[in-house]
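Re-run with default settings, no changes from the original entry. Doing this only to confirm the output is reproducible before filing.
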Amino acid sequence: MKTSSRKKIKASEFDKLFDEGKDVSSYLNLKGAKMEHPIQRINIDIPQEMLFQVDKEAARIGVPRTSLLKLWIAERIDTL
């Protein structure tokens, strides 16, 4: 019989470590974890000037271009 090598702690201790921003990965069993929403890669052609504006806004708020585009798409979908 194989024994688990994961550390075990109480839930309250785990919560405290997580809230403090500590690495809690050694306490997790990720063996069977699945992505909730699979990723589909797409290509999109955007005019250079428009992409410049996207990059400018992404830099202003401190996020990568792709994150900003996903945020904008999600916001638009929410209005449908």
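The chain is about 45% helix and 0% strand. The longest helix spans residues 48-61.
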